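WARN retry 2 of 3 for item q-0093 after timeout on previous attempt; input resubmitted unchanged.
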Amino acid sequence: MSTTHDDTPRDGHPRGDRPATVDDRPAADDDRPGWRDDRDATSAAAEAGRRPLPATPPRLVATDLDGTLLRPDGTVSARTAAALAAAEDAGVAVVFVTARPHRWLADLQAHVAGHGVALCANGASVVDVGTLRVLEQHGMPADVVGAVVERLRERWGADRVHLAVEGADGFAYETGYASDHPIPPDARSAHRIEDLLTGPTLKLLVRTSADPSDGAAFVDALVDVVGDLAVVADSGAHGLGEISGPGVTKAAGLARWAATQGIDQRDVWAVGDAPNDLPMLAWAGTSFAVANAYPAVLEAADHRLPSNADDGVAVLLEHAVAAGAASPRRVPADGPDGTRRTARSSAPS
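OK item q-0093 returned
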């Protein structure tokens, strides 16, 4: 039985429905002491009572998006865009690791590094962001989804459980499912979700009109019902449960992808804000939390950064580039096959 938490905001509004465009406004002032836009990460960490950022540069920085790299309004700040570009030019690979489905990444194409990919659906898929094509997937087969669905209907009643799925071929939903996001025009619908399972399911989305239908009690009930069949994620959205295949976490997805790039675990920095980031932070060689993170994430991380409103990920990337320039062990800019990566290409090299 596994439970993770999704990276939706604590105000209950789902993330990913805002465009992730570049915002060239200065970061908003924060009323928390110690986080000012003109302070470097080392002094900020010292003021917060945390250890200074590491002097040895990473080969890979893995970052969550919503609540972490993206500003509270869902945009990429000008400082963060510049830091991503500088990291690419310096040979520090950056990969986005997000709970978002791949269809919500179109606005981020300009910010994806030379490898051209993002890890989506909590690690269930590797996506070519330039084309939004799923390159690799670790979804649930139809028989597993069917078994989970059967348990859900037994628990809450067939007429009170409403389901949808995210897959490589897009979004599909039962006619009774109410989405907080606009339904894609090409989405398929049917009375029963089983009639829409045309391939592996990256995420099964669950709503119920029965009690409990929201909050921690709903998540706990889902965990009890699903058992060891799959992984339950707490999305933080009103009454929405997310279920992924067994063993699907951000950590597992990142570990697989880093291995394909010839990057050792100890050379990976990971940053996040929410409980679903905890496995990734635990796996990475060095972990970071933005100041707005959940308390459990702040406690678990090796280092703290300014908040997402104060460009915490940009501060981290700027430090990584500076550490690489100062270190005798320069960060490799080549891929595992020895070829030079193309800066900010939209397709995998």
